[in-house]
């Protein structure tokens, strides 16, 4: 598995399907598909958002070679690039929904994060713990001072 899952299709059909699904995801911002297809679409959709955030001519040409439709391309480079300008990654969310009747395939919604009418709200960012002071390896620990008895100096009896 070097690049993609096979998804039971020849390479041309598989790439055509994934390109269409990414374009539909950008256009509608939520689609329902099988879990394995959603995982593959998620990888490609995140790459398209990265290209939109880059905003260069080369990025626009790479994205235009993948997605279908000028309106989709325009949405990637304007609306979605602006929405995710501060986010470092993880632009999509996959929510498992049901088991499909007929072939018992596990289904899932894949949607963009931070949009209106989300199925589940984004979690707030977890605060970072305060930085720890580096330990001095030569200092005696508190536990050894607590449990070890203090050292007593030896007195010599030969002085008497």
From TrEMBL:
Protein name: 50S ribosomal protein L17
GO cellular component: ribonucleoprotein complex; ribosome
Ranges where the record places region Disordered: 119-160
Species of origin: Arabidopsis thaliana (Mouse-ear cress)
Record key words, sorted: Ribonucleoprotein, Ribosomal protein
Any one GO BP annotation for this protein: translation
Molecular-function GO term, any one: structural constituent of ribosome
Basic and acidic residues composition-biased segments: 150-160
Family statement: Belongs to the bacterial ribosomal protein bL17 family.
Listed InterPro entries: Ribosomal_bL17 (IPR000456), Ribosomal_bL17_sf (IPR036373)
HAMAP family: Ribosomal_bL17
